Amino acid sequence: QQQVKQSPQSLIVQKGGISIINCAYENTAFDYFPWYQQFPGKGPALLIAIRPDVSEKKEGRFTISFNKSAKQFSLHIMDSQPGDSATYFCAASMIAGTASKLTFGTGTRLQVTL
Amino acid sequence: DTGVSQNPRHKITKRGQNVTFRCDPISEHNRLYWYRQTLGQGPEFLTYFQNEAQLEKSRLLSDRFSAERPKGSFSTLEIQRTEQGDSAMYLCASRPAYRSGNTIYFGEGSWLTVV
C-alpha cells in the first residue's frame, strides 16, 4: 500500500525556470511533511519541511505548498539551477507516533539544463 | 557534528554469505532508524530503536535480518544467508529525542550487491 504518491517521475527544467513536484497522501494522521534531496551515491538530505497548520513555507528558492483538504503538498524550486539536479523525495510521518518513521514517495529525478 | 556514519560504504558478497553493516548516529540522538532503498525507489522503513530498545520492525525485515543497538549508541544490521533480492542501499538515520526536533538525518548509506 503506497501511502504517499509522488509525481512526476522525472522532470527536465531549463536554468532559471520553476520546478514543481507534487505529492498526495492518504493517511490523515500524518502531521509532518518533509522534502529530501538526494544526489547519486549519497543519502537523502532534508531540504524543507512543513506542518499542516500552515499552507505554505518558504526557504530561499524552495517553497512547500500544502493543501490539507486535498491531502496534497508540493515543492516549488524557483530559479532552478544545474546544481539542483538531483532526486527529490517527499515524505510524511506522524510526529507523535512511536517511531515517527518517514513514509517516502517514489522520487522525482530533476534535471536542470543550461 | 560529524553526521551519521555508516560502514562499509560498499559490500559485494556471494549469495548465501552473511554481511553486517554498522551505523554510528549523531551524538546524543537517541532515536535510530534503518531504511532500505532500491534503485528508482524511495527509502523503505525497516526498523527503529529508541536508545537500546528496538521498538518497531517492518514486515520487510525477514527472519534473516537482525538489528541491534547494544549500548544505545552505534547499531548493526546483519543479513544472514544473503539473497540477490537483498541488493540495495541500506540507510541509517538518527534524530534527537521527541520534542527536541523532528528532523531525521540520514547517513550516506551502505551499498550491498549480492552476486
Concise structural overview:
The complex is a heterodimer of chains A (114) and B (115). Chain A is an all-beta fold and 114 residues long.
Mean pLDDT rating of chain B: 92
Would you report the number of β strands of chain A?
11
Order of SSEs of chain A, N→C? EEEEEEEEEEE
Structural class of chain B: mainly beta
- Largest inter-chain contact set: A-B, 25 and 24 residues
Helical coverage of chain B, percent range:
under 10%
| CA-atom Rg of chain B in angstroms | 13 Å
Largest sheet of chain B at a glance? 7 strands, mixed
Mean pLDDT of chain A: 93
**Assembly status:** heterodimer
Assign the structural class of chain A, choosing from mainly alpha, mainly beta, alpha/beta, alpha+beta, or little secondary structure: mainly beta
Walkthrough of the structure:
The complex is a heterodimer of chains A (114) and B (115). With 114 residues, chain A is mostly beta strands. Chain A has strands spanning 4-7, 10-14, 19-25, 33-38, 45-50, 56-59, 62-67, 72-77, 86-92, 103-104, 108-113. In chain A, the strands form two sheets. In chain A, strands 2, 4, 5, 9, 10 and 11 form a six-stranded mixed sheet that branches. In chain A, strands 1-3-8-7-6 form a five-stranded antiparallel sheet, with no helix packed on it. Chain A is globular. The model of chain A has no long low-confidence stretch (mean pLDDT 93). In chain B, a hairpin with a 6-residue loop joins strand 7 and strand 8. In chain B, the strands form two sheets. In chain B, strands 2, 4, 5, 6, 9, 10 and 11 form a seven-stranded mixed sheet that branches. Chain B has a four-stranded antiparallel sheet with strand order 1-3-8-7, with no helix packed on it. The mean pLDDT of chain B is 92.
Keywords:
heterodimer; A: 114 residues; mainly beta; six-stranded mixed sheet; five-stranded antiparallel sheet; 11 strands; 0% helix; globular; B: 115 residues; seven-stranded mixed sheet; four-stranded antiparallel sheet; 49% strand
